[in-house]
Amino acid sequence: MKDSVISIILGGGRGTRLFPLTDHRSKPAVPVGGKYRLVDIPISNCLNSDIRRIYVLTQFNSASLNRHIKNTFNFDMFSRGFVDILAAEQTADNTDWFQGTADAVRQCIRHLENHKFSHVLILSGDQLYQMDYRKMLQRHKQNKSHLTVATIPVVAKDATGFGIMKTNDDGLIDSFVEKPSLDELEDWGSNVPEPYASQGKHYLASMGIYIFNRKTLLDLLERNPDATDFGKEIIPKTLDEGFKVSSYEFGGYWTDIGTIKSFFEANLELADTIPAFNLYDNDNMIFTRARLLPPSKIMGTTLENSLVAEGSIIEASRMVRSVIGIRSRIGKGTTVEHSIVMGNDNYQSKEFIDNAAADKPAMGIGQRCFISNCIIDKNVSIGNDVRIVGGDHLPDGDHEYHHVRDGIVIVPKGTVIPSGTAIQ
Questions:
Q1: Would 316 be classed as within a structural domain?
Q2: 96: how many CB neighbours lie within 10 A of its CB?
Q3: DSSP secondary structure letter of residue 77
């Protein structure tokens, strides 16, 4: 497996739907689950699938992503494995940014040609799931396919947001439609196994995960120089040109972290008693940067369904269904509910004492605050007696200290909120 496959993780574009979380970082570098980054998910899936040659393609705000990967994924000198960043670059043949997923791979394909491989695994950098890609490759080889597309069975109301694949009796994809309307769906159902059929999941949605034969990918990119996107252009081309395209039905948990709402919900679900995405799995570990941080210290706090990452100092009175990131500091008498606190990049030991004496907010959340339905980005300083309450009563908008998306209040990285402020 490891000698036949090279993986390419697509970092995405500007990530405008995840703004302001992507204002200073690329989408794959967005923190998730208190201590991880989104890019850790596909990389971990690759490592758990015995894939050791991985490229991550990016072009926007890539500094923190570069730093994270450099500090995290280092293989020993006797291994041929690597996790490398390929950023958009000007060459003698091309002076443009990546124009889409297919164009990004086309521009970087020359780096792959230095390696021996028979298959290319193409992944997205902003999805939350656990998959053994070896099973997908096995299906690909068994069917003698040129391309295999990972699909997930969905119900009709969800199908309108995806590219829908229709399979024939042999399980091969023979047609594709991008985000069909409800009126069009009648003709786009596929034969799906149980229990999906009884759940009404008759439609196979593309997960944006592909396995190409090497020659197939190179030929398609060369013959279609103007095609910039896999989902909208390259995949239909494979069908039109008679390539053998298989569907690999994935029945596990999978979610696309494309919007603030989906990011928010996916994080809070990790704090459920039995989450659909399992962080506590010996066989499917999620790898991330190993930090030399002290254990978290929690004093007088009632915790309900919350994740608390290492290095935190928590004096809050109550925390409910929340995700608390590394080095978080939360003061006495504060309540945090249904919120994500991403934590801090460093400690402010001396500054914390000096700021307290000068009545200035230090990094973290102060005393007697109430935080609900919020995303507090890294290195935010919130004073005492601050009230931030998100919900459906708040319209979308951009404000001095915060942004609102789908009723969720997002406080951007590095913001300082004075004591006594009310956002509600």
A1: yes
A2: 10
A3: T
